[in-house]
């Protein structure tokens, strides 16, 4: 039974693969003819823009023409690979492993299948090869893993990389010569040679303005922190002054002496360790600390209002 199933599966794979590959070849020819007409019309539009001196539009349209031309050339190579696979279907149907002479063609078709939306038959061919050769063989070709046999021209033509300035300029010169235009390429050369700014991190003007806007916020936060520290120091000094006053006042002893000659006045003498000079200094330090605390709190309020703005 296993031999019968194996023979049946072989014949079934060959029939399905032959049908899908034949449909893919017909689709490629149809799409190529359509794209060729579109490319001719786009070239005529570019020539008209060059004649009218609309350089800005030309610089945008020329990239689209190059991308469409690359896809058209990739389809031509895929058509040859599909015809080659179609001719070798009996060999594919009789062998379990992929033949070495067909690896490049099959890997290129697998790589192009998800990248060519106009050719849905390529996805069907990819699913057939997945069932026959396994997912590892398919993923190696689709993800361009080391050792893959995908055609390098197919990779370049289906790439989304922007064309170089030389390629764009050569295409414009070719179009101008084909339609006999007196076109001066100096403007296009100057525009293509410009090094445009990388805007992934934002333009330089926006970044400079953002830095200028953030600078007063940082300064206000620093002043706020310094004022809060000054307020804390002033409060500690005030507390120390009041504690010194409280500890020094009980040590003062007063003696009242009555002068018999001047009975209308009292003479008060002070004794003890503390003196009036030290008491006055402590009072002055306390007043200075209170004034510093008031100024620091006012500066903190002003910094907070500036940060809110």
Automatic annotation (TrEMBL):
It comes from the Eukaryota. One of its GO terms (biological process) is protein transport. Belongs to the IST1 family. This is IST1 homolog.
């Amino acid at each position: 039974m296993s031999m019968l199933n194996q023979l049946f599966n072989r014949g079934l794979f060959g029939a399905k693969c032959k049908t899908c590959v034949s449909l893919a070849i017909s689709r490629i020819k149809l799409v190529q003819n359509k794209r060729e007409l579109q490319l001719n019309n786009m070239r005529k539009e570019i020539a008209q823009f060059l004649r009218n001196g609309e350089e800005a539009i030309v610089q945008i349209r020329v990239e689209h023409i190059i991308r469409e031309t690359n896809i058209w050339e990739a389809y031509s190579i895929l058509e040859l690979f599909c015809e080659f696979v179609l001719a070798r279907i009996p060999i594919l149907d009789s062998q379990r492993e992929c033949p070495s002479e067909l690896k490049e063609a099959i890997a290129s078709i697998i790589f192009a299948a998800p990248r060519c939306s106009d050719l849905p038959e390529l996805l069907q061919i990819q699913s057939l090869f997945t069932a026959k050769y396994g997912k590892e063989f398919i993923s190696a070709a689709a993800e361009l893993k080391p050792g893959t046999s995908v055609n390098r021209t197919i990779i370049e033509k289906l790439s989304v990389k922007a064309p170089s300035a030389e390629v764009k300029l050569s295409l414009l010169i070719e179009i101008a010569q084909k339609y006999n235009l007196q076109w001066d390429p100096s403007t296009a050369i100057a525009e293509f040679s410009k090094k445009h700014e990388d805007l992934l991190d934002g333009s330089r003007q926006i970044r400079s303005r953002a830095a200028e806007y953030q600078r007063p916020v940082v300064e206000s936060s620093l002043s706020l922190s310094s004022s809060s520290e000054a307020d804390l120091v002033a409060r500690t000094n005030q507390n120390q002054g009041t504690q010194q006053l409280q500890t020094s006042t009980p040590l003062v002893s007063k003696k009242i002496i009555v002068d018999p000659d001047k009975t209308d006045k009292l003479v008060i003498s002070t004794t003890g360790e503390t003196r009036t000079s030290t008491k006055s200094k402590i009072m002055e330090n306390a007043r200075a600390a209170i004034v510093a605390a008031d100024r620091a709190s006012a500066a903190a309020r002003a910094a907070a209002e500036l940060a809110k703005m």
